[in-house]
Amino acid sequence: MAHGFQPNWTEKPPKKNSFRSVFKWGDPKEFKHPSHAWYEMLKQTFDLTDADFKKPRFEGNEKVTIDHGISLSADDIEAITGIAGKKNVSTDDYSRVKYSHGKTVDEAMDLRHQRVRHVPDMVVHPKNKNDVQKIVSYCNTQKIPIYVFSGGSSVTFGLKTPKAGIMLVMSTHMNQLIGVNELNQTATVQPGMFGPAYEAALNDAPDTFNTAHCYTCGHFPQSFEFSTVGGWVVTLGSGQASTYYGDAGDIVFAQEYVTPAGSFKTLEFPATATGPKLNDIMKGNEGAFGILVEVTMKIFRYMPKNRQRFGFMFPSWEAAVNASREISQGEFGLPAVFRISDPEETEVGLKLYGIHGTPIDKLITFRGYKPMERCLCMGWAEGEKAFAGHVKDMVAKICKHNGAMSLSGYAARKWEKTRYREPYMREDLMDYGIIIDTLESGVTWDNLHRLHQGVRKHIKSRPGTICMTHASHFYPQGTNLYFIFMLKMTDLADYRKFHDGILAAILANGGSISHHHGVGKLFSKFMDQHLGKTQMEALRALKNHFDPNHIMNPGGHLGLDADE
Amino acid sequence: MAHGFQPNWTEKPPKKNSFRSVFKWGDPKEFKHPSHAWYEMLKQTFDLTDADFKKPRFEGNEKVTIDHGISLSADDIEAITGIAGKKNVSTDDYSRVKYSHGKTVDEAMDLRHQRVRHVPDMVVHPKNKNDVQKIVSYCNTQKIPIYVFSGGSSVTFGLKTPKAGIMLVMSTHMNQLIGVNELNQTATVQPGMFGPAYEAALNDAPDTFNTAHCYTCGHFPQSFEFSTVGGWVVTLGSGQASTYYGDAGDIVFAQEYVTPAGSFKTLEFPATATGPKLNDIMKGNEGAFGILVEVTMKIFRYMPKNRQRFGFMFPSWEAAVNASREISQGEFGLPAVFRISDPEETEVGLKLYGIHGTPIDKLITFRGYKPMERCLCMGWAEGEKAFAGHVKDMVAKICKHNGAMSLSGYAARKWEKTRYREPYMREDLMDYGIIIDTLESGVTWDNLHRLHQGVRKHIKSRPGTICMTHASHFYPQGTNLYFIFMLKMTDLADYRKFHDGILAAILANGGSISHHHGVGKLFSKFMDQHLGKTQMEALRALKNHFDPNHIMNPGGHLGLDADE
Predict the structure, then answer these.
(1) Cβ B264–A538 below 8 Å, yes or no?
(2) Model pTM greater than 0.95?
(3) Which fold does the domain B74-172 belong to in CATH?
(4) Exposed, middle or buried by CB within 10 Å (0-12, 13-18, 19+), for B13?
(5) Any idea which fold B519-564 has?
(6) Chain segment A99-128, per-residue pLDDT in tens
């Protein structure tokens, strides 16, 4: 090893209108490179040398061009342009590609090779819900497919446009916080508002909305900076503080959709007993029933000073899981952030955060917490001051009772600062033919170990594959398992086969096909097997009711029109 | 007033097979009579004298006989008898009346006059879910209406059988706790299990199911003793400890239904992002989509020793509401039971609990908490010991900050002991022509005062009508208002007009048509106006999917087939 050798990680923003500018995560000017310890791990795991990291390949720096025709008639284009306004529509190659691709690994693999499988005929940026209503009405009459793009962070082919038609981009204009109702602790927001703008507006509510208190949205997915409130709701996302604040679906108070069957609006009540809840029928429909045009979210007091961080090292995964369950069922309130990493993720994490090989690492090992057995745990409690303090005390008590060693709040502080930056590493790795991808699954406590072992067994059966697992969303009845896997692979068909195998292993071992990534068009083929035919028929009945002509996100979304 | 005069309250159990035995609340041998202070209040309010309380009228002591024919064919009766077994079916007059009436005031008014409007042709007590499956399948083929009876405590015409057909009684055989999963903290239970049996089995889980801890169901509606787990779920009930444990819908983990469209079973996951949640689509369907045959409920640690009771007197309703909102939004955990009574309920309550006119009452008044302004608050915190203590401390701090005087846990203890007994008073009052009835509504904080005032105004516009209001289910975004009204009235048509007027006032003032009583066939005519046509059409689409022949609870249930 040439000491001091630095791989040629890209530090340049993607070229304008390039394929890379479509698939690159996040801010074009932001990068996060693997740590030195990670770099060494990559070389060792994938049997690579420094020489392999000199020249990035298939970067997608080419300018986007496509040869897909436009099937919309000139009349249709004129009609839709008339509704949205000329400056809010486009049919150029770049727009058609940019607004029909998310962050699914397959999409990056395709775009690196300038492969574009599907694009919409036309991209439209509606100004308001009236535009959306008119467009949906027109398209329903003319049977023109409609797709929806908001933050663009989907990792499940949520933005794929197999039937062409038009793509509505919600984040261009419909991205405002309409109002804060302090008495009700709710905020009414347009679906295309990005996480940071929404959170900042709530933090600043005393200035902007003349409230007595500062507020927080309570929802912080890893995609926070590049996802929107509407996306959170329609895909049933979970944020990193979901253990306390609830998942996105829990935070929804009322919704307004435009559907081919009409405008669908739910009432603002804290609870009702007026039949199956209309709010719940719509949450998670991923644009297959209609388009979310306004949503009222629950908000929470913003009290960052009360945050109580903690970190622990457990002697084993079993001990970490047992402690997590005791905490989740302890009835003393729940921590906001709570994460446990399995032994492999713990080791890789120590490398990622530069702790591997340091005196701290040696101390931990000396105290009997052995590599590839020990498990890292970290998080924090929020809420009213004494409440948060008590939650932290109880967490500490239960962790220690389960054999854990306290690490202070260091790891949590470190993670907190970099928690949104990890996805940036994907581009560096793929530049050298290494895939990093994730899958997650909801699971009950009694099935956690079976699922963890079953999925790991499948992934690790492929030589030279890294598989890290953590649990990060806790409920009294169970948690999620988040699998991060890394492998050297460049062929998309091979990858799809490998990936489908993991999904099959998740289902075979009793996990849910998605905990918080949604379904999109990536998991849809597993839906009938997963939920069962009678259950899927109920969702299809709703689909057929709201969208009898199947113009909303058609071509397999949620598995509702897979046969077509 | 003849001092020492005792009204002739009935102390005799209803005669066997009498109309009274159908409509009387609860245990036939249990009674609760109005207190002396209440009796005086009744005489004064309704302009009555002791002489009016000497002879009860229209007691419904007559033996049940009806002249309703049976429209089911002999073949149908034979087929259904073949499925359920001869001893599990009946077509006698008494069974047909008993199992098609709940506790709606209208039903009591009718039965006191031996008026029977609708009965099923046949009553069937299924042994298990296979029986239910076969019966639904047969009835769907033959287009025979099916109704469902479980606890029988509906106050919304939930058990009315306008289209005859068969009535399935779930509580006769399908009333067992199938299992407790301690790792997941869930219990799988048959729908016809009554509250006390379910709670006792969970409390005794260490003996019965060999668990490490005792558990509680967390759901304690006023009807607890005579309602069933299945009824809680399908009507979206709320228990008296819902502020901490959640409403019935929140406590459901997985469900199994038999529907004409097939067996519908949801998976056990703490969270998923696989489209609109199937569990939520079914909760609250009130038997209009299918029949709940098994349900897995979340359960909670049973730690009664940690209960921390409190009681306060507020100077005004505004102060009580403000404190309640601060507590609900305080982020220090929530009390399990929390109740605030408006000024009129506070006065009537002091009379009910024998506090009116005592030295305590005088002390409270002396300290400036004036009758018809002051508001009673009581409740308790549960959960882990220090958590419960902290919730109580925070509640006390906020109440005092809002001008409240502490009353200790006395009122809560008193209420706790008698909380399930109050419905028994209904028979005493109706024996003398006095109706006591209730309506409840969900409401956001910003609309609470408008709703309270609007509904009170309507009720009090009728001279000589008592209207008590409390809020007892708290959420960060709002609460419920529970209206209890008493009036002297014996004509059913008059009463229906009065009652519909209150519902209209609730809707006109932005309340929900039901917070936790469900919809049944009593509120159904208001559903389109309340939820809106587009929204109701979505529920009708589900109805038509699950029950294309409209055999499930037909004749207006939930407003889904009102036109027929």
Answers:
(1) yes
(2) yes
(3) 3.30.43
(4) middle
(5) Vanillyl-alcohol Oxidase; Chain A, domain 4 (1.10.45)
(6) 999 999 999 999 999 999 999 999 999 999
